[in-house]
Amino acid sequence: MVEVTAVIKNEAGIHCRPTAVITQAIAGFKSTISVVAPMGHCEIGSALELLMLGLEQGTQITLRAEGSDEVAAAAKFKELFETEFDFPNAGQG
Questions:
Q1: For residue 92, is pLDDT > 80?
Q2: 20 to 30 Å CA-CA from 89: which of 15, 21, 26, 32?
């Protein structure tokens, strides 16, 4: 098992859109990845459970990866959780 620490950098935290990006990325890995946060823990793959963690900017989390590609998985999800997502505003052209 590999454990890494990440700090949420996205200004709006991990809301619906970042959660979609993060949970879709799990398909590229064989390892099981879980998030441990102050409000609880969950496996990445369940968007609802991830949203329920209430991950706001500045929150420190621990990512745990276990499996044949655990090192790569831990690095990728650390990168994703520390991404400052820049989604365009809805309704603007």
A1: no
A2: 26
For the question of residue 41 being annotated catalytic, the response is no
Task: Please tell me the CATH superfamily of domain 2-81, with its number.
Answer: HPr-like (3.30.1340.10)
Check pLDDT > 80 for residue 10: yes
Percentage with pLDDT > 70 across the chain: 92
Question: In sequence order, what are the residues at sequence separation of 6 or more whose Cβ sits closer than 8 angstroms to the Cβ of residue 8?
Answer: 14, 55, 56, 57, 58, 59, 60, 61, 81, 82
Nearest CA-CA partner of 62 in 86, 85, 88, 44: 44
Q: Which of 9, 15, 41, 78 is catalytic?
A: 15
Which amino acid, one-letter code, is at 92?
Q
Please state the domain extents for the chain: 2-81
How large is the average pLDDT for residues 45-50?
Answer: 94
